[in-house]
Structure formats: C-alpha cells, structure tokens
Amino acid sequence: MATADGLAERAVAVLAAAEPLEKLRLSEKTATDWRDGLITEMGRAKPPDRPARPTRPALVPPREVPRRRIGSETSGRIALLHAVAHIELNAIDLAWDLIARFGPDASEAGLPREFFDDWCQVAADEARHFALLSARLAELGAAYGDLPAHDGLWEAAQTTADDLLARLAVVPMVLEARGLDVTPGMIEKLRRAGDETSAGILEVIYCDEITHVAAGERWFAWLCRRQGRAPGPTWEALVGQHFKGVLKPPFNDEARRAAGMSPDVYGYFTGLGS
Ligand SMILES: [Fe+2]
Ligand SMILES: [Fe+2]
What pLDDT sits at residue 269? Predict the structure, then answer.
C-alpha cells in the first residue's frame, strides 16, 4: 500500500533517528518502499542541520581518534573497523540529507526518478555496510560507540548545504573516491594479519563504493550538461571552493576509471593533470 509521506519526509525521519539500529531499519524500509513504488510523492521536509546520533561515540578532533595499526592485535583492527563504521553511519545520513535537501527542487527542475533510485540505493548500501561492520565489531568483542570518532564528514555536508553540484563534487567525487584509494591497502593489511573476515567485508564495501562514486560522477555530469557547464572545470572550481583538505595521491586510477572519473580532472589538484 502506498504510504502518505513523500520521499523527503521519509528521508528526514531517517535523519531524525538517533539510534543506529533504528536508522538502519528506516533506511532499509524507505529504500525498499521507494523501489517498490510505494512512495508516490517527493514531498517537502526540512532536513536538520545535523542528523540525530547516538550519545556515543564522542566526537573529537581528528588527531584524537585512536590510530589504526593493523596487525594481529585485535585493538588495531577494532579501531580500523570502528572508524569505517563511523564513516558508513555518516554516509547513510549524507545520502538521505542529499535527497531531503535537494530532492524537492531537483525533481521540480526535471531530475528524473533514476536520480532518486540511485541515492536510495546508496543509502541502503551504506546501511548494509554499517550492519556488516557492527556485526564484525561484535565478533571481536567491541561495539560502535566504544571509541571516539571525528566529525569531518558532516562538515563536508554543511559546507555544501546550498548547492547540489557542490555536494556531488565533494561527497561522492572527493570523499568517497578517496575511500577507493585507501581501501585496497586496508584489505591487504587485514589479510596479512590473518583477518580474512574483516578483509571480505571491506571488499564488499569497496565494490559498492565504486557504484556510489559512479552515481556522483554521472549525476554531476548530467546536471552540468543541463546547465551548459563544462564538468571538469566546474568540478575543479567547486572542489577548490568547498573542500578544505588536499587531494592526496596515490590515486586508485583503476577504480576511479571504473567509476567514470578521469585522471585528467582529479590530477589537476596535484599538478598531474591538465
Ligand atoms: Fe559505504
Ligand atoms: Fe558510499
């Protein structure tokens, strides 16, 4: 049966859920209802400046987050998996925030249903990633919230809250693409430490994340075409304006290419590109 709330209202309900289990449940249900055609309206609802979160983990400056030395010691692997779980929880909220914040106007401006199909799928993937990592943390005797975490990802959301193109330029095309650069090294270290189970989870995440970067790249290019802007220079300008960090090589050119990203564009920031 069709639900009364539009997709934007449902997205805001996920953002308002503080407990990860509830955030996961609502994410999965909303993505499924959207896919099954049970949500018939985009609706309109204001997303919060900050999504609701559990009381733990404590959010601290990046240098105070425990280092993740990956080896046979369980503590290092727990620190790594905890940090990735925190990224995934942020990623769930980032996907719903994008839908709630930009969806209503974007759908009026002619963005097709496939745009929302993609971001609902991203949100469902991120929820599954968080669930996989939580289960693995439990097997290792830990839980999400046990360690402090940093708040950098949400800062990226706040600096791009007014501009969908900027959001796409920074979140999937810088931050998630960075995940593609660093994840194979983590998988390798976990494998060397004999933790095949954790390595397998990161492999699942890695494959899914290529599709997330690809969705960002595809819709960024789509919007640029509609606005008569050149994607490469537009991306460079928006990243220069909204992203405070640096793009760190080495880049995973193979995964980035698989996601549709051109080294000519992202190499620009390191002087390697045009
Ligand atoms: Fe993810
Ligand atoms: Fe992702």
Answer: 65
